[in-house]
Amino acid sequence: MWAAALILIATSLPQSTESRVTLPAAVRSAFETAYPGATISSVIEEHDARRRQFRVEGVHRGRRRIVLYDVSGVVIEVAEQIEERELPQPVAAAMRSHRRAIYVSGLKVTRGGVVEYRLTLRGTRKTALVAKPDGTVVSFQ
To answer: Strands, DSSP E only, in the chain?
Structure first.
């Protein structure tokens, strides 16, 4: 019975493979068109119940970027490195409203037209802050 439960759980989770992934031409073309001159540092193929996806991590103009594509090269999600000075004022204010919170790193994540900021902090017991562009805190863990 336990084996059947483990198989069910394992098959319902997204799975990924990183070793020697062949990037589909449509995905490579989409990445190279969007970020000319970018260096691809890793490619991970992911599978969920509905589709194959490719997580392409690269560096473009000194900025780390992670882009999730479907097999046809359509962008699903973009996460790009963002410096503290580039945060929208409401997001920076939300971060600073927590005593002793010190900015370590951050990502601006865009998925389906929705933007959120995922920040890593130190100096406080909670180290991960997710906020909307208007400064609304989605989570702080």
So the answer is: 15-17, 39-47, 52-60, 63-70, 75-81, 102-111, 114-122, 128-131, 137-140
If one counts every other C-beta atom within 10 angstroms of the C-beta of residue 87, the result is: 22
Q: Which fold has domain 82-141?
A: Nuclear Transport Factor 2; Chain: A, (3.10.450)
> What is the reported pLDDT for 15?
47
Residue with tokens 């580039």: 86
Q: Is 13-80 in CATH node 2.130.10.10?
A: no
In tens, the pLDDT along 70-119 reads 999 999 999 999 999 999 999 999 999 988 889 999 999 999 999 999 99
C-beta separation of 94 from 139 below 8 A = no
Q: What is the chain's alpha carbon radius of gyration, rounded to the nearest angstrom?
A: 18
